[in-house]
């Protein structure tokens, strides 16, 4: 049995990481669609850097919840038969023990150098334009996929979706593409599809099954059933 799991901000909500919708689209006082774009970074780099610096700092203060831990247990049992894809840029899956996580929208704890293209693990602020550890240029940006940018590892994700027996979406509103279309690609290839979310999402009708409630309760119960 091959499983693909897609997670969104809802799985980190109970760890204290605000979601995009619960902050009704406002995050650190900004509309994400206005700040998470290359154009915003070009025109107002300090605002964008401060937006991500604040979220990177907040990450040191939160811990994984039972939902993250259950998915780490699933990986220990399923190994390479499980592909965990996350839209989240936090590191809570890794801190819960998941070892191969596909961050399709990048990671807060990674910095991308616009001069040399190198990625470096980065836990501090970027607003003061620190030097790239690889080339020394002061051209580091958050290693995060903004609106209008191509998400990471799409080929690997699509291959897994076409081979999956089961696709499970956890804690996502199904508002942003291409992630919101994964359920249809999986179903078209014959996979069963299940949504675990606090409430109905924009994509609920595309799933064979849906369970609604907090991830910290639904995910451990589902993993227990599967194991
Ligand atoms: C691309 C990283 C093409 C940044 C993110 C018009 C103009 C320009 C683009 C477009 C356009 N129309 C469509 C597009 C495409 C666009 C898009 O889809 N826009 C939307 C707004 C319509 N997509 C893109 O631009 C993507 N790229 O298309 O590239 C391309 C092609 C070729 C070459 C080059 C380019 C890139 C999108 C990635 C943007 N980056 N994140 C950052 O974090 O700052 S998006 C971000 O929002 C997330 O990563 C996620 O993907 C998305 C939605 O967030 P969710 O995770 O779902 O969170 P949300 O708050 O929305 O929902 C939380 C859910 O959890 C809720 O349902 C809630 O009920 C539930 N919940 C809450 N608490 C709990 C819970 N569930 C369980 N338990 C709980 N306790």
UniProtKB/TrEMBL annotation:
**HAMAP family hit by this protein:** Sirtuin_ClassIII
What does the record's cofactor remark say about binding? Binds 1 zinc ion per subunit.
- Residue ranges constituting the Deacetylase sirtuin-type domain according to the UniProt record: 1-227
Any idea what job this protein has?
NAD-dependent lysine deacetylase and desuccinylase that specifically removes acetyl and succinyl groups on target proteins. Modulates the activities of several proteins which are inactive in their acylated form.
Q: Per its UniProt record, what Pfam families does this chain match?
A: SIR2 (PF02146)
Query: Which parts of the sequence bind Zn(2+)?
Result: 113, 116, 132, 135
What's a single GO MF annotation on this record?
zinc ion binding
The active site is formed by: 105
| Name the UniProt record assigns to this protein | NAD-dependent protein deacylase
UniProt free text on domains: 2 residues (Tyr-52 and Arg-55) present in a large hydrophobic pocket are probably involved in substrate specificity. They are important for desuccinylation activity, but dispensable for deacetylation activity.
Catalytic activities: N(6)-succinyl-L-lysyl-[protein] + NAD(+) + H2O = 2''-O-succinyl-ADP-D-ribose + nicotinamide + L-lysyl-[protein]; N(6)-acetyl-L-lysyl-[protein] + NAD(+) + H2O = 2''-O-acetyl-ADP-D-ribose + nicotinamide + L-lysyl-[protein]
The UniProt annotation places substrate binding at: 52, 55
Stated family:
Belongs to the sirtuin family. Class III subfamily.
Give the keywords, sorted.
Answer: Cytoplasm, Metal-binding, NAD, Transferase, Zinc
According to its UniProt record, the EC number is 2.3.1.286
Instruction: Name any cofactors this protein relies on.
Output: Zn(2+)
């Amino acid at each position: 049995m091959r499983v693909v799991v897609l997670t969104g901000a809802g799985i980190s909500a109970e760890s204290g990481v605000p979601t995009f919708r619960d902050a009704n689209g406002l995050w650190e006082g900004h509309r994400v669609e206005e700040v998470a774009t290359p154009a915003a970074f070009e025109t107002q780099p300090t605002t964008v850097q401060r937006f991500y610096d604040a979220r990177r700092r907040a990450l040191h203060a939160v811990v994984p919840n039972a939902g993250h831990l259950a998915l780490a247990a699933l990986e220990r049992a399923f190994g390479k038969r499980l592909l965990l894809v996350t839209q989240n840029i936090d590191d809570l899956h890794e801190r819960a023990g998941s070892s191969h996580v596909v961050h399709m929208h990048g990671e807060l704890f990674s910095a991308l150098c616009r001069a040399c293209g190198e990625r470096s693990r980065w836990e501090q602020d970027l607003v003061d334009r620190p030097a790239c550890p690889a080339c020394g240029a002061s051209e580091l940006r958050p290693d995060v996929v903004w609106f209008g940018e191509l998400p990471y590892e799409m080929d690997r994700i699509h291959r897994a979706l076409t081979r999956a027996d089961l696709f499970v979406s956890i804690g996502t509103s199904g508002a942003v593409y291409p992630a919101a279309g994964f359920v249809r690609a999986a179903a078209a290839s014959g996979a069963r599809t299940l949504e675990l979310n606090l409430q109905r999402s924009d994509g609920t009708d595309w799933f064979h099954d849906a369970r609604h409630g907090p991830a910290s309760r639904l995910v451990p119960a589902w993993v227990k059933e599967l194991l």
